[in-house]
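Suppose a colleague, Dr. K., hands you the sequence of a protein chain of 117 amino acids and asks what its three-dimensional shape might be. Before reaching for any lab equipment, you can write down a predicted structure in token form. Begin with the sequence itself:
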Amino acid sequence: MNFTDLSQYINRLDLIKDTADQIIKDFDMFGMEIKFSGNAFNAYEELFDQMEPHIKKLIDSNQQKFLGILYRIDLSDEQIKKAVHGNSTEPFSMIVTDLIIKRELQKVVIRNHYKKL
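The predicted structure, expressed as tokens, is then:
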């Protein structure tokens, strides 16, 4: 499953909540607080607006921690390079934040799929 296949899942409240929970858990491991109101209609924006400043700060000041969170989330260099190459107008921190949200949703969808088997 690639990121483009995720569009069918972005309106499912259960998956959005699980994705937010996963993001909160992963960021908390690195001492960064993320909160989610539970509102599925603006979940992406809500999470993005909280995550992006953390990612920008890590990129600018703590490469080791930045790489650690990418490793924890399982976001590869190849995925990042592909996204940056396809979108050279957005700041790097915004591209990475978008990829993190999509990767976390992808993990939740895959996990839920295999729970049903």
